[in-house]
Design brief:
Elements: H1 3-45, H2 50-55, H3 64-72, H4 76-82, H5 85-103, H6 110-131, H7 146-150, H8 154-161
Length: 163
């Protein structure tokens, strides 16, 4: 391999490392805030999702964290059984990383892909709430939520809506 090719490769990987370093520095406080929120809500409410904590109802993204953990550990069938949208988010994540770090370009289709995935998640949420709620997690009611403690009869009212 020629010295010129070696220099180009070295410069390429240096640029990749620099983009990763920039993003870590730029988003470190956001990552710390999310980690702190996670720890506090898990300790206080045994849940992460604000919708579950407040209403006891699952949100369109309920099960996404568990699905991601199953996906990352190779338990694909279990992951997809919680939400098929984990596959879409995985593809979007890989695509975004390739475009940002390896290609060093801004994608024109990334945001439309994200919007379509979010719309799909909301439509799937409506379907699951209409056909499966209250059922097995993640499409289940979580008792001892904020509104249940605040409003007498809240639980029976909410569950009565889905009979």
């Amino acid at each position: 391999m020629s010295e010129q090719v070696m220099k180009k490769r070295s410069a390429y990987w240096r640029d990749v490392r620099e983009r990763i370093k920039e993003d870590i520095l730029e988003y470190r406080w956001l990552a710390l805030a999310i980690a702190a929120y996670y720890l506090i809500t898990k300790m206080m409410f045994h849940a992460f999702c604000p919708m579950v904590i407040i209403t006891g109802l699952p949100c369109p993204g309920c099960g996404m964290t568990r699905a991601a953990l199953f996906f990352l550990t190779g338990q694909f069938e279990r992951s997809l059984s919680l939400t098929p949208f984990i596959l879409a988010w995985a593809v979007i994540g890989v695509y975004a990383a390739i475009m940002r770090y390896l290609a060093g370009k801004k994608s024109k289709i990334l945001m439309p892909l994200i919007y379509l995935t979010i719309i799909g998640m909301f439509l799937f949420y409506i379907y699951r709430m209409a056909t499966q709620f209250p059922g097995d997690p993640p499409i289940s009611y979580t008792g001892n939520n904020f509104l249940e403690r605040l409003i007498p009869g809240y639980r029976s009212f909410v569950l009565g809506l889905f009979e």
